[in-house]
Write a structure and sequence with these properties.
Blueprint lengths: L1 H11 L6 H19 L10 H23 L3 H18 L15 H15 L9 H24 L11 H32 L5 H12 L3 H4 L4 H20 L1
Helix pairs in contact: 1-2, 1-5, 1-10, 2-3, 2-4, 4-5, 5-6, 6-7, 6-8, 7-8, 8-10
Length: 246
């Protein structure tokens, strides 16, 4: 999802599409997700072989990520460092103090902000910003929140009630209404970007029906594979549409 949204930004704005930044975004996403879900040193429940294999993959990925990041410009490093800080404090500290994840009501916004930094801000680090750039970041922020709602509903029973997630606060029907509202604002922003500034930010519109469809059935969301696989693929459909429409 992160790589697809990053490439979408590059294509929609006609920016250079380079392999190294894509590799950095992919590796950074893999390391961050692994760090949040199961850090290497939490593998104590697995056999020694799986601990070594998991730790080895993580170490090699971190080594490659660090090597590629060293060759990037300073603004790139700052953006990745900022997103990395959000990820770190999203997980730690685990006890005694409160991490970002446990702060009531802000979990989804922390996730969305880190994604915006990587998929929306990073491609423009060498360009002068103007009004359409800021509107595009807002569109991306709202789109990521919309894309996160199926995960919020899936984790409704598993999340700590103290988190006060959107799903816990609004319930299933409330999250559906929020999804419709977000889709409406994303539609307006897409129209403004096109008609006022000539930015063809159409791919977000392609994603809206898929995300709204994913919010239609609570039983489907509880499936072990629907959210983790099919919802993860939705940005890829938008990227395919963008590629062929160009």
């Amino acid at each position: 999802m992160v790589v697809c949204l990053y490439v979408t930004t590059v294509l929609e704005w006609g920016l250079p599409l380079l392999g190294a930044p894509i590799a950095i975004v992919f590796l950074g996403s893999f390391l961050s997700y692994s760090f949040i879900k199961k850090p290497v040193y939490f593998f104590s429940s697995l056999t020694r072989f799986y601990r070594l294999r998991g730790g080895g993959i993580y170490f090699l990925s971190a080594l490659l990520f660090g090597g590629l990041l060293l060759n990037t410009a300073v603004p790139d490093k700052i953006i990745f460092f900022s997103a990395g800080c959000l990820v770190f404090f999203y997980v730690f500290p685990q006890s005694r103090y409160i991490n970002l994840r446990r702060l009531s009501g802000i979990k989804i916004y922390i996730v969305s902000l880190s994604w915006v930094l990587i998929t929306g801000v990073l491609p423009f680090e060498n360009y002068d910003w103007s009004t359409p750039h800021y509107l595009y970041q807002l569109q991306r922020f709202l789109l990521i929140i919309l894309g996160t709602l199926p995960f919020e509903l899936r984790d409704l029973k598993a999340d700590d009630p103290r988190l006060k997630t959107l799903a816990q606060s609004l319930g299933f029907s409330g999250v559906q209404l929020l999804g419709y509202g977000l889709s409406f604002f994303i539609f307006l922003l897409s129209g403004a970007l096109h008609y006022l500034y000539g930015v063809a930010a159409y791919s977000a519109l392609v994603l809206l029906p898929f995300y709204l469809w994913s919010l239609n059935d609570i039983e489907r969301l509880s499936s072990p594979y629907f959210v983790s696989f099919w919802v993860e693929w939705i940005p890829f459909f938008g990227l395919i549409f963008l590629y062929f429409s160009r």
